[in-house]
Write a structure and sequence with these properties.
This protein is 39% helix and 8% strand. The longest helix is centred in the first third of the chain and has 32 residues, at 122-153. Among the domains are: 7-114, Nucleotidyltransferase, domain 5; 122-209; 215-256 and 267-334, no CATH class. By secondary structure, it is of the alpha/beta class.
Length: 480
């Protein structure tokens, strides 16, 4: 049974101040007030109204360092998700004082009502800051490249096709009337190119601090940037009981709004880190390309695209992004190395042509029966067949030893042979009945008669005809 907290401290953080409310389970509100948002003032607040069982904060920009401050003072801190606190955000009489009081009351009632969020460790925050600074510079470079191409296109000319990081090398292609106007943009592009290259080296150095980054970066479509961002956002993989939960954590699963008989389809929730979700989507687009390394994810994606067509490709990309997140978390927790074709059966190899295997009747056996014989075997004799086995002569015909009659190659029994060669009759040998059919083996002495299929019932006319024939003829003989 869950143990309820007996005392709590709710703090509503703003940009420059913090409203607090200390509450006890028996006495109710103990103290309320407002203090400046500073380290010394918050430490003094803990000395005056602490210790308490739990300190409740609302997620926001200052919540990270405030959480570390109270955790360093020995407090149990919960950072609540404001999107799921309807009692706070949807109040018709919302204020900072009421918000602090509601946070303290929820801390006493049930911690799960607060929807606690994960607070990143300092090393993870540093890695995320590095990645976001690089991402911001890439976005600025993309905007400058688009602006340059648009201005040049207005004059009737075009910039040569190239990657964004190489456009500054083609400044000479700018029309003369725009040379002095676009020159500052090209200078900025050169500066950004050098800065992004420096940040790429720092990303590699930062990834060395986390050994799992190198293993995750080996996945097809995933690079060191996405691998480092995944490690920084997840932090501790043990907090996910199932690896599939990472899809919902990153907002890559559909929202659900079921009520009674109504359960409509919704778009993805887009919860969690939008930065990591965008990186995973870009990785999924690489996996869904027509050409690339043969992997289980690529096979699944191409199969789905063939089923749903171009209209469903966007959904397939989101599904592949979710699969990549689940795969990365699974490899992180298990410590295994990525296998491109994990749980995928190998493609069947093309079998070499096998020799034709014939039975005692000269008929070809199936591939399964042919595989049971050695490759050099061209005839097969049943154990129950009497007489010498079939042999294959030099001209390709088959027959029993000592028989003078053969069937030309390519002919089937009971039909005319291929070509103009005349057909010769095959004499039945020992153990063979008419039309080349094998007779059943004789029953041993004293054995009961074999029970065969019962004969169908005969009509009255048939029975009368048989009785007349036994008496020496029928009355219809004279008219035939």
């Amino acid at each position: 049974m869950m143990k309820r907290n007996q005392s709590s401290l709710g703090i509503d953080l703003s940009d420059r101040s913090a409203n607090f409310c200390a509450m006890d389970a028996t006495s109710g509100v103990l103290a309320e007030g407002k203090v400046p948002l500073a380290v010394a003032k918050l430490a003094e607040l803990w000395r005056l109204h602490g210790p308490v069982d739990v300190v409740v904060l609302e997620a926001g920009t200052p919540a990270t360092w405030v959480q570390e401050l109270f955790a360093g003072l020995g407090a149990k801190v919960i950072v609540a998700d404001p999107r799921k606190l309807q009692a706070v955000t949807a109040s018709v009489r919302k204020s900072d004082e009421r918000d602090a009081r509601m946070l303290a009351r929820l801390g006493l009632a049930d911690e799960e009502l607060l929807s606690p969020t994960h607070v990143r460790a300092p090393e993870h925050r540093r890695a995320m800051a590095l990645l976001k600074v690089r991402d911001q510079q890439v976005r600025i470079r993309t905007a400058l490249v688009l602006e340059i191409r648009a201005q040049v296109k207005l004059t009737g000319a075009r910039m040569p096709p190239c990657d964004a990081e190489a456009l500054h090398e083609h400044q000479a292609a700018v029309p003369e009337e725009l040379t002095d106007i676009l020159a500052p943009l090209f200078d900025t592009l050169r500066s950004l190119a050098a800065s992004i290259d420096t940040l790429d080296e720092k990303v590699k150095e930062e990834g060395v601090k986390f050994p799992v980054v190198a293993r995750l970066a080996k996945i097809d479509g995933v690079g060191p940037i996405t691998a480092l961002a995944f490690v920084a956002v997840v932090g501790n993989p043990a907090r996910f009981g199932r690896t599939r939960d990472i899809g919902a954590y990153l907002g890559l699963v559909p929202r659900r709004d079921q009520s009674g008989q109504s359960d409509p389809s919704r778009r993805i929730s887009k919860a969690g880190s939008g930065f990591l979700r965008r990186l995973l989507t870009q990785c999924a687009q690489v996996v869904c390309r027509p050409r690339g390394k043969d992997t289980a994810q690529r096979r699944w994606a191409h199969h789905r695209i063939e089923l749903h067509g171009k209209a469903g490709k966007r959904k397939v990309i989101v599904a592949v992004a979710r699969k990549l997140a689940v795969l990365m978390l699974s490899l992180w927790k298990s410590g295994e190395t990525w296998n491109p074709l994990h749980r995928v059966a190998a493609k069947p190899a093309v079998d070499a042509p096998q020799p034709v295997v014939l039975d005692e009747c000269g008929l070809s056996l199936g591939p399964q029966a042919a595989a049971e014989n050695a490759p050099s075997t061209t005839t097969r004799t049943h154990a129950c067949t009497e007489g010498p086995p079939l042999e294959k002569s030099a001209d390709g015909s088959t027959g029993r030893s000592g028989a003078s009659t053969t069937v030309p190659r390519g002919a089937s029994r009971g039909t005319e042979p291929r070509g103009d060669a005349p057909r010769e009759r095959v004499e039945p040998g020992p153990g063979l009945g008419t039309a080349g059919r094998r007779d059943p083996p004789p029953a041993p002495p004293g054995a009961p008669a074999r029970a065969g299929r019962p004969a169908p019932p005969r009509s009255a006319a048939t029975r009368r005809f048989d009785s007349d024939a036994a008496a020496g003829g029928t009355k219809h003989d004279a008219t035939r």
